[in-house]
Amino acid sequence: MDKIIIVGGKKLHGDVRISGAKNAALPIMVSALLTPGVSTFHNIPDLVDIKTIKKLLRNLGAKIEGDSTVKINTENINNCEAPYELVKTMRASVLVLGPLVARMGAARVSLPGGCAIGARPVNLHIKALQDMGAEVELKDGYVEAKAARLKGTTIYFDISTVTGTENIMMAACLAEGTTFLQNAAKEPEVVNLADVLNSMGAKITGAGTDIITIDGVDQLHPVEASVIPDRIEAGTFMIAAGITGGDVRILGCDPSHLDALILKLRDAGMEITMIDGGVRAVARKKIKSVDIKTLPYPGFPTDLQAQIMALMTVASGLSVITETIFENRFMHVSELMRMGADILIHGNSAMVKGIPKLKGAQVMATDLRASASLILAGLAAEGTTELSRVYHIDRGYERIEKKLSPLGADIKRVS
Ligand code: EPU
After folding, report:
1. 253 an active-site residue?
2. What is the CA radius of gyration of the chain?
3. How many whole angstroms from its chain centre is CA 238?
4. How confident is the model at residue 299 (pLDDT cuts 50, 70, 90)?
5. pLDDT of 173-229, one tens digit each?
6. Is 45 in the pocket of ligand 1 (CB under 6 A)?
7. Number of alpha helices (DSSP H) and beta strands (DSSP E) in the chain
8. CA 371, 374, 379, 383: dihedral to nearest 10 degrees?
9. pTM here?
10. Where are the alpha helices (DSSP H) in 17-111?
């Protein structure tokens, strides 16, 4: 199994280009299921999760070609099942549920089960489909859903759910009548998906607000569309500049998706400036501690919580980091402590007391964003950090070591 070896202490300098957003590419590729024909999607990142969604779509009968530009032919969808093997490796596989019921009248999708960051149920996806008239049964660990045609209705999500909103928004495009999604997720990935669906002929308004209205149509048509830049990858590189005292230009990103992070990094003493095609992140002074609370967009993203915690471990002062989205997203804490970090967890908050320097150590990745946090810690630490279980990072960052090396990081992957 691969490992990533980092010799810390190098200031990062230079330009890095951001890839397409994993969490937008996944639902957008799935949206091709809503209509027969060939859809073309640009700016698809080269990630393990993208390979998994391709496998799942092929398993349903789709033909797929290409990497950064992907052509998906959904003429012959002949299977409505998302098997356990694929759903357990990637929870986002549950996104096929809504589109399959909407186009094929039926779907059988494995229940994902818990994961390293929390229980993550899909009860809200299921309840919404039932509200739209689907018959849903839970059998042998699978959700089995049927509906001759879904019916538009008003759906209220008890919790703002990103993939829940995406799943039901896709299903509602082909429903009879109008669907209102209340307390809908407002993430930029939801807006990107809504734009793609509208180019397919859907009638969606309000994406990006907490009420989305979808007027059902009888059919959609194939589309050519692009995926937005990955705000979490961009945010991770801004923090990389901060933790190494560097100066990095992050190109091809959309800073308007990162307001919460940018304002926090400025409070922490970094200079974040808008430049042509992205942002420049500079850390000239010692980082100051800031408090963080994760919230649904436009709040501070849970997907950057582990990374900002790495930064706070070497800041001056005490930072309180509160995780409100997932109940178990502090798995990186014990690994950061192996590198000398001073962190105390109390309920869903972590008290991080900044120390002058982290020390390199052997650490283990437990999930995707935790691995990014440990790489950031390794970049700042004295000595060598050896990160194992790096397959987690390959799910969501395109060869991260290949993007960090040209910035001056001493980082390599070994088998
Ligand atoms: N929830 C329920 N019931 C549901 C759905 C969600 O209780 O039916 C709860 C979850 O357990 C969680 C909260 O609602 O406590 C929010 O979860 P959400 O459904 O929004 O998460 P998700 O859609 O499964 C997406 C991203 C995650 C990201 C979260 C939060 C994708 C493919 N995944 O997950 O990304 O952390 O939104 O922003 O879009 C990552 O990229 O590392 C990642 C985990």
Report:
1. no
2. 21
3. 17
4. very high
5. 999 999 999 999 999 999 999 999 999 999 999 999 999 999 999 999 999 999 999
6. no
7. 14, 24
8. -130
9. 0.98
10. 22-31, 48-59, 84-89, 97-104
Kindly tell me if the per-residue pLDDT of 118 is higher than 90: no
CA distance 143 to 122: 10
User: Residue 180 Cα, ligand 1 centroid: separation in angstroms?
Assistant: 20
What average pLDDT does this structure show over 112-122?
Answer: 79
Return the SS3 of 70: strand
Structural domains in the chain, CATH included, are: 3-19+229-414 (3.65.10.10), 22-226 (3.65.10.10)
Q: Ligand 1, closest atom to CA 159?
A: 14
Q: At 296, list the tokens.
A: 């649904």
Q: Ligand 1 pocket: which of 49, 131, 162 to mutate (most atoms <8 Å of CB)?
A: 162
d(CA 316, CA 311) in angstroms, rounded, equals 10
Q: Whose CA is nearest to atom 33 of ligand 1?
A: 23
pLDDT at 119 exceeding the cut of 80? no
Ligand 1 centroid, distance to 271 Cα (angstroms): 31
167 lines ligand 1 (CB under 6 A): no
